[in-house]
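Q: Given only this backbone (177 positions), what sequence would you predict?
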């Protein structure tokens, strides 16, 4: 009887491993918002990593999160490092590309609760007296992340956080003189 249970358990685990392995390796999360502000007003919220504290959804998840900054105050080479609770983890963000009022590219590295490296891009597109801001993140899922995605919808979870961040950024840029 125990042998049959063990064989059944092994079969279930093999099937689960196959299902996980067949999940997509690459992912993309994209959200956009239109803001009643010029591109330069929105661009500066992203290009200056210290300004993220006012609108980032993760800053709101951990009021005691420790952040440090390195390199230039803005633009390429600016780095933010953080250590926080289980929700925000530990990692760093480095601006890798900065085209004023058009684009900010970042390398996002997570150390905890999992190790991952993702590429993030913010684009700013003028639309009359407004700006369309698009927040885009791409990366590759390892085996563990593929398995996690079977339980949690990462696209929705990260997408919801992106929407919260864009809404906070919108309230900041639209209320500034």
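A: Predicted residues:
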């Amino acid at each position: 009887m125990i042998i049959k249970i063990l064989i059944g358990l092994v079969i279930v685990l093999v099937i689960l491993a196959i299902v996980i392995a067949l999940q997509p390796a690459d992912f993309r999360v994209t959200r956009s918002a239109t803001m009643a502000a010029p591109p330069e007003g929105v661009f500066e919220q992203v290009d200056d990593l210290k300004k993220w504290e006012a609108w980032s959804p993760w800053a709101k998840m951990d009021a005691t999160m420790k952040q440090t900054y390195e390199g230039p105050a803005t633009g390429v080479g600016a780095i933010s490092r953080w250590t926080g609770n289980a929700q925000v983890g530990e990692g760093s963000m480095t601006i890798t590309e900065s085209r004023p009022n058009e684009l900010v590219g970042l390398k996002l590295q997570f150390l905890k609760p999992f190790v991952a490296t993702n590429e993030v891009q913010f684009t700013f597109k003028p639309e009359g007296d407004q700006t369309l801001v698009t927040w885009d993140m791409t990366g590759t899922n390892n085996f563990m992340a593929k398995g996690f995605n079977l339980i949690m919808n990462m696209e929705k979870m990260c997408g919801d956080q992106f929407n919260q961040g864009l809404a906070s950024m919108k309230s900041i840029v639209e209320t500034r003189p």
